[in-house]
Amino acid sequence: MLSDECIYLRRLEQTDLDRTWAWVNDPAVYLKIGVQAPVSRSAQLQWFERLDRSAERLVLAICLNEGDVHVGNVSLDSFESRHRTARLSIFIGDGAHRGRSVGSRALALLAGYAFDFLNLHRIWCKTTAGDARIARFYEQLGFQREGVLRQHEFVDGRYVDKVLYGLLRGELRRVPPTP
Ligand SMILES: CC(C)(COP(=O)(O)OP(=O)(O)OC[C@H]1O[C@@H](n2cnc3c(N)ncnc32)[C@H](O)[C@@H]1OP(=O)(O)O)[C@@H](O)C(=O)NCCC(=O)NCCS
Hints:
CATH superfamily of the domain at 2-124: Gcn5-related N-acetyltransferase (GNAT)
CATH topology of the domain at 2-124: Aminopeptidase
Distance between the termini: 25 Å
Number of helices: 5
Structural class: alpha+beta
Radius of gyration: 16 Å
Bound molecules: coenzyme A
Oligomer: single chain
Helix content: 25-40%
Low-confidence stretches: none
CATH architecture of the domain at 2-124: 3-Layer(aba) Sandwich
Shape: globular
Number of strands: 8
Largest sheet: 8 strands, mixed
Strand content: 35-45%
């Protein structure tokens, strides 16, 4: 079980789709994770059915131990089997649960799984440049800023730079205790 003293990760289930649908249609989430919103329910169901049959993408629900509440999702995709790399993505869908270490804990559990179970060597992600909180979020876990993709995406009416962050096996730092 992927768990710590506060949260656990489990496979996304079909019964999680209504919540996930609402989250990925929320600009606080879709503008950050690059989802092509609005997402229809039928498109989301097709996405889930492909996901359930595929080994190319792993999506896990982030749940609080207390009350078994599903608060967000974390995923790995773009696996490169020869290079042992994958891309990660994360969001805490319910704003009330952001800033409470849930994301850091989820990312630490995912990284442990990626390195110790899937035997990956490197995980990476693209984030929006100029967001100090996001930078802190990744850097405090040991991710290194590896480069800038200039005007790489068109988001909310303008081109934005994206920052690449990477974490190699052995670089994960301990999650700070919940304040
Ligand atoms: C980014 C995200 C996953 C971080 O998860 P979280 O549970 O809110 O973060 P944590 O509580 O573990 O905080 C760790 C650090 O991240 C920072 N942080 C980043 N985004 C934050 C947010 N929206 N709210 C609060 N803290 C945030 C905090 O400053 C904190 O650093 P600090 O302890 O030095 O203050 C979450 O805020 C989120 O889902 N945001 C919307 C979607 C998104 O941006 N996804 C990432 C795309 S790259």
